[in-house]
Design brief:
Blueprint lengths: L10 H4 L38 E4 L8 E6 L5 H15 L6 H18 L5 E8 L2 E8 L7 H14 L1 H10 L2 E6 L7 E8 L1
Antiparallel strand pairs: 1-2, 2-3, 3-4, 4-6, 5-6
Helix pairs in contact: 2-3, 3-5
Length: 193
């Protein structure tokens, strides 16, 4: 059975209506563009397109350090992938671009579907000849064991491409519950040189 790319992965969220979470990407819902479109500053909040909050610490003696926050929207995968590719190239880590951008796009797209409408935190670090990618989402832990197991199984199945890319590169990946005071799930990837 084919499912919509906007369908929530979590079984608890699957029945929730997601139509309101994904506004029409054009600032005007009309099929014909307005002759004088409103400026970005005059748009209402629901008309704003997803934008990242990029905070790069640039080059350092310790290596690449990049972290940013993205909206919980599947379109954010492209933004994350682009930012990570640019950071890797600027820091002379071009060999990592292919696996890291694929891993980031998969993690961001899946975590956005786990927590639609909630911000995602992305962190990229290069230390000791290894690249570390972390994506934290705000999907809550399910108190019922059966629901928690089903949710985790669906998350892992949705990340099959990530698993193939990381395995091909000789890396590791996993997920774990975020520790207090944070809530949600941390998904991580380790790519050695």
């Amino acid at each position: 059975m084919h499912s919509s790319p906007f369908t929530a992965i979590c079984p608890a969220l699957a029945e929730a209506r997601t139509a309101g979470l994904y506004p029409h990407p054009h600032p005007h819902p009309h099929p014909h563009p307005h002759p004088n479109p409103p400026s970005a500053a005059s748009r209402t909040p629901h008309q704003q397109l997803p934008q990242p909050y990029l905070r790069s610490k640039g080059r350092s003696v310790r290596g690449l350090t990049l972290s940013f926050t993205l909206p919980g929207d599947v379109r954010s995968a492209f933004i994350g992938r682009t930012a990570i590719a640019a950071a890797l190239e600027v820091h002379g880590l071009a060999p990592y671009v292919w696996p890291a951008t694929h891993a980031a796009a998969e993690l961001i797209a899946v975590t956005a579907r786990m927590s639609p409408g909630k911000e995602l935190y992305v962190s990229l670090r290069h230390r000791d000849d290894a690249l570390r990618l972390l994506v934290w989402d705000q999907h809550p832990h399910h108190p019922e064991p059966d629901m928690a197991m089903l949710c985790e199984t669906r998350r892992r199945r949705a990340l099959w491409l990530l698993a193939a890319v990381v395995d091909d590169w000789g890396g590791e990946w996993g997920t774990c519950e975020a520790g207090p005071p944070q809530r949600g799930t941390k998904s991580w990837v380790l790519l050695p040189r």
